[in-house]
Design a protein that fits this description.
The complex is a heterodimer of chains A (362) and B (152). By secondary structure, chain A is α+β, with helices and mostly antiparallel strands. In chain A, 39% of the residues lie in helices and 16% in strands. Chain A has a 4-stranded antiparallel β-sheet with strand order 3-4-5-6. With 152 residues, chain B is α+β, with helices and mostly antiparallel strands. Chain B has one domain. Chain B has 4 helices and 3 strands; from the N terminus they run ααβββαα. A 3-stranded antiparallel β-sheet of chain B has the order 1-2-3. In chain B, β1 and β2 form a beta hairpin. In chain B, α1 runs antiparallel to α3, α2 packs across α3 and α2 packs antiparallel against α4. The longest helix of chain B has 29 residues. The chains are: A alpha+beta (362), B alpha+beta (152). Chains A and B meet through β1, β2, β3, α7 and β4 of A and α1, β1, β2, β3 and α4 of B. Chain A: This is Carbon-phosphorus lyase complex subunit PhnI. Chain A: It comes from Rhodosalinus halophilus. Chain A: GO terms for molecular function: lyase activity. Chain A: Keywords: Lyase.
């Protein structure tokens, strides 16, 4: 029950003024510039872009600064801002096969054409705190080597040509758009992928991990993980042709999964797919595992009742802005609801006490 | 783009280059080229919006909506009637205006100046940025060698 009440304006204004002061912190410490956030906390910026579902590094940096580093609050700011933007169109699907990669690894084939390119990765670091970063110092320079001008074909293409993996062809259908129509279940794979791409990294990580531990197991290999820049092309109706409108950094993960075959299909590998804004490989891998787990129905697999196989459970709870909106609203005034519950409890206790008094008297 | 003709492909090339260029680099080169601010009317004043970026399931399959990106567009008409269009990544209206003016100027007498003083340096800087990244990536390519083969 909602009842409008007034009051608290002064307290709210002063709370927000204190918030602004607290955001700035100790004024003897230099103010943080947006360029510093964008350049030096770039993976936080990437997460805010991915889950805010809006690619704009400067805006994400501003949101992170305004939110004092609370990334979900920053994502909330981006989602709110996004609603003010007119939609100028839908791009052509990006060609990740033409990605200019800075990282590309395969866990399934050692000698993949183009090679294993590690890129700027945390992998193989010792996870020891580096105290030299606590002191200001010159940036070390990355090594360089002559780059071969070769294409980097998708690793799964080799399995595809051999026919041992489920093919992935474009059916040509226009995909549904969660930002234009509310999610309806059952959702097709396009809608699921959109929801997962903007879903909470922690939630997807937990679900993907649960599937690895046996709750809806589907035994994934990372066929390929690639991070790099892709061009975005938009058809311009007033010109009658498409132009590149910019370039995005994306992380793509393709998994290869066991599939022993069904009544209608011979044994072959199947796929899970993850595609995320920015350098976000934990999220991309998790997305691919959850995508694959949710495909159990179309692949004729058993429903083991695992949470990761439950489309409604996954899709209805993956969005951290919906989740935090509902979760956090319960701290806001519920005085009237609670008063009625308190009245009810008191009345039940009075009635129970009255009944036991009567029993004692009898 | 297939079958659009050489002229359109060339125009797509410079429109894409202008869209991808850093706004400050474009502004500096524009200034240095002495292009000033040619008189123009707005066919469409600068407008910032969002384009929904699409991907494909499994990289080659059905399209899906990945998320949006900010884009600023505008269209200009020069005094002599030439039109210029721009769709550029981000929210910088001055960037979009310069890109649209460059598009218009490229269709007339000023094309050589714009090409030599603005587009060529932008293309060169972009190629160098890409090459520098590719060289760093190449340095992290794994060279495998077999240490010993188990025989059990």
């Amino acid at each position: 029950m909602y009842v409008a009440v007034k009051g608290g304006e002064r307290a709210i204004d002063n709370a927000h003024a204190w918030l602004a002061e607290a955001r700035r912190g100790d004024t003897s410490v230099a103010d943080l510039s947006l360029a510093q956030v964008r350049e030096q906390l770039s993976l936080a910026v990437n997460r805010v872009m991915a889950e805010g579902a809006l690619y704009d590094p400067d805006l994400a940096a501003l949101a992170i600064k305004q939110a004092r580093g609370d990334l979900i609050e920053a994502i909330f700011l981006i989602r709110a801002y996004k609603t003010t933007l007119p939609r100028l169109g839908y791009s052509r699907p990006v060609e990740t096969g033409a990605m200019r990669v800075m990282r590309r690894v395969s866990a399934t084939f050692k000698d993949v054409p183009g090679g294993q390119i590690l890129g700027p990765t945390f992998d193989y670091t010792h996870r020891l705190l580096d105290f030299t970063l606590a002191a200001e110092g010159a940036a070390p320079e990355a090594a360089q080597a002559e780059a071969a001008a070769e294409d980097l074909p998708h690793v799964l293409g080799y399995l595809d040509r051999e026919g041992v993996i489920q093919p992935e062809a474009d059916g040509g259908a226009a995909p549904g758009d969660l930002t234009r129509a509310p999610l309806e279940l059952p959702a097709d794979r396009a809608l699921r992928l959109q929801a997962l791409a903007r879903g909470d990294e922690g939630f997807l990580l937990g679900l993907a991990y649960s599937s690895q531990r046996g709750y809806g197991r589907n035994h994934p290999f990372v066929g390929e993980l690639r991070i790099g820049a892709v061009a975005v092309e938009l058809d311009i109706p007033e010109l009658g042709f498409a132009v590149e409108i910019g370039e995005l950094e994306l992380t793509e993960c393709e998994t290869v999964n066991q599939f022993t075959g069904s009544r209608t299909q011979p044994a072959q590998f199947t796929r899970g797919y993850g595609l995320v804004f920015g350098q976000s490989e934990r999220k991309a891998i998790a997305m691919a595992l959850v995508d694959r787990a949710l495909r159990w129905k179309e692949l004729g697999e058993e429903d083991t009742g695992a949470p990761v196989q439950d489309e409604e459970f996954v899709l209805a709870h993956a969005d951290n802005i919906q989740a935090t909106g509902f979760l956090e609203h319960i701290k806001l005034p519920h005085y009237v609801d609670f008063q009625s519950e308190l009245e009810l409890v008191r009345r039940l206790r009075r009635e129970a006490a009255g009944a036991s008094d009567r029993e004692a008297a009898e | 783009m297939e079958g659009l003709g050489e002229k359109t492909e060339t125009r797509q090339g410079w429109m894409g280059l202008l869209a991808r260029a850093p706004a400050d680099a474009l502004a500096r080169l524009w200034e240095e080229a002495g292009l000033g601010m040619p008189r123009h009317d707005w066919l469409r004043p600068p407008e910032t919006g969002a384009v929904m970026v699409r991907g494909r399931a499994g990289a080659t399959g059905d399209a899906f909506n990945l998320g949006e990106m900010t884009v600023t567009r505008c269209a200009v008409r020069l005094a002599d009637g030439r039109d210029g269009h721009a769709y550029v990544q981000g929210r910088d209206k001055a960037h979009a205006r310069r890109a649209a003016l460059a598009d218009a100027l490229m269709q007339g007498a000023e094309a050589a100046v714009v090409r030599d003083k603005v587009l060529a340096p932008l293309a060169e800087a972009e190629a160098e940025r890409r090459a520098a990244r590719a060289r760093r990536a190449a340095a992290t390519k794994v060279e495998f060698f077999t240490m010993a083969r188990g025989e059990d």
